[in-house]
From TrEMBL:
Entry's Gene Ontology cellular component terms: nucleus
Record's subcellular location: Nucleus
Species this chain originates from: Oreochromis niloticus (Nile tilapia)
Region (Disordered): 471-507
Top-level lineage group: Eukaryota
Protein name as catalogued: Zinc finger BED domain-containing protein 1
HAT C-terminal dimerisation domain sequence ranges: 511-591
Amino acid sequence: MEAHLRVVGPMNGKFVFHKRPDGTIDKGKVVCLECKKEFAYHRSSSSLAYHLNAKHPAASAATASSEDVSNIASQSKAFRQTKLENTPRMSKSATDKLTNVIAKWIAMNCRPINIVEDEGLTEVLQIASNDPSYKPPCRTTVTTKISKMYDGEKKNKLEILAEDSPNCVAITGDHWTSAGNHSYFGVTGHFIDSEWNLNSFALTVMRTETRHFADKCAEQFLKVANDWGIENKISTIGTDSAANMLAAMRALPYEHIACNAHILQRTITVCLDSSGFVGVLAKCRKIVGHFKQSPASTTELNQQQVALGKKSDQLIQDVPTRWNSTLAMVSRLLCNREAVQATLDQQNHRLVLPTEAEWAKLQRLELLLEPCKYVTELLGGEAYVSCSVVLPAFRHLYRVMDITDDDPAYVVKFKNAFQKDLAARRANGNEIWFEVATALDPRFKDLKCLPREKREQVWTILENMLQAAEPRRADSLQPSTEDDGPAQKKRRSELLLGSDSDSEDGIESGELQRYRAEPSISIDDCPLQWWYAHSGVYEKLSVLAQKYLASPATSVPCERLFSLAGHIVQKKRAALLPENVTRLVCLSDWLRKKK
């Protein structure tokens, strides 16, 4: 019987299957191991359990005890409570901090507010926070946070402007049309604080409904000044040279500074249209347009560039309203001349390529326009003093445009037209302001950019100002150590060139005489740091320096503000409310400069 297979089930261990004489197993019968009695088995153990209870009570009790233990264990395992994973949850303070960071990120980087509903952003934040249950704040919460952030930042800036330290504030203003065909009026403010740091930030970008008449423009400037409480502190207003702006400035009691970058770029456009470069520039535009309109041609050009070991750069088309775009088009074509010619040789086209003489024209044009680009970028900065650089920069341009014996006729024509047009446009500008600012800049106070007889007139004007000025001692605080100049330092020394004399005899006494006796500092040094160190010695002059050096030389800061607004008021966001546009644009400008 030991060879019999035991029955699997509750009676396991007390019954075995019957074994036939031939050695096979009969699963229809079982044999009791206690009394050797056979029973029919049909996969039910009821009769077998009855037999054990009736004939073998001891064996039945042992089987029951074993089954109870097994049942209890199985039931305990089945009803055992599932153990929850110990996943960390973000605290309320951490959640609030993350919400503030998200709102700041949206405002500073011009992201749409509905980005918080992006599933991808939710997944990223859940992984970063190690909290699978985290959900980004809703749009209403972000909008409220941004509104509070704007109010807080504006309050801080109002408090700064209300102090006595910025005794003068220069502003720039212009109009802009959004993607939704709405007109906005943007204004930026600029001043030097008690620490001799140059501050620059947006004041407003407000919706306007009226036409840009001169009287309306004047009213808009006054409204912004009153809203910020600087109507008695404005020193200069910088605008472009549009007729309505010029008329508005004549109606306002403030000094006007015409945008020198606009003046220079307008001169370049006029001179190019009336010079010997018209024909070759027309050919360049057609060549660039040929590649711009054909992706296949662009691909072939890139292949030729790679074959010649050059970088796969796209050609650039010039735009009349985009500064320095003509220079960019010419420079890119000259750099890729061989690749362009090789590509066009393999194509069937009707383009007329420039001749060797015309390619030489383009090289000369590049040399003429490169200094203009440098001056435009130099004067367009707002993180450093630019007003005092105007006269040295234009003096450098006049030297570049001096006619030489090697100049061909078309270059002579361009240079003559450039000098006459630029001089005519600057004739009605605020030259006295630039002259005083240059004299108050310790880098250019020798006034080498002016004729000898003109220099004494500038010092006389300064002497009269000092006699009428009230002394004011600047606070002794640590000045800013930020770099005050643009990246192209290698050419800045050229601005010091161009004078008829290197010395002049002064007749003034007191502060002005001592200031003139001071040695000029390096062109790479910061004039504001110099004035911080010497403001206690030159009390009256330091007040004038804060006023004149704070004015920007161009209205580029306002144009830069509109570029920022263009990232916010896009086609998909053209229906933004005017107050939301103001908050988003100004807050983005403030946060970027604060960072």
